[in-house]
Write a structure and sequence with these properties.
The chain has three helices and no strands. The protein has a domain of 25 residues. It is mainly α and 70 residues long.
C-alpha cells in the first residue's frame, strides 16, 4: 500500500528514464537530503625541484616542430 501511494505522489517520468532509475535503484536514495554536504577543499602539495610527469599536447605537427627546432 505504501509503495502505491508513493507512486501517486511522484512526478511522471519518461519511460526510458524510469528504466534507468529502476536499473540503478540500489544507488539512488529514496528521498533527497534537505542539507548540503560540507564543502571540501582539495589541495595538492607541490614539491620544489620535482620533475614534470606529463607534457601538454603539441600545438603544431611533429614535422613542423622538428623543422623549427633545427
Amino acid at each position: 500500500m505504501k509503495e502505491q501511494s508513493n507512486m501517486q505522489n511522484s512526478p511522471k517520468v519518461h519511460r526510458d528514464i524510469a528504466g534507468v532509475l529502476g536499473e540503478f535503484k540500489e544507488v539512488m536514495l529514496p528521498k533527497l537530503s534537505k542539507k548540503l554536504l560540507p564543502r571540501l577543499i582539495h589541495l595538492i602539495e607541490l614539491k620544489l625541484g620535482a620533475k614534470v610527469l606529463a607534457m601538454g599536447p603539441y600545438c603544431m605537427a611533429p614535422p613542423k616542430s622538428e623543422e623549427l627546432g633545427r
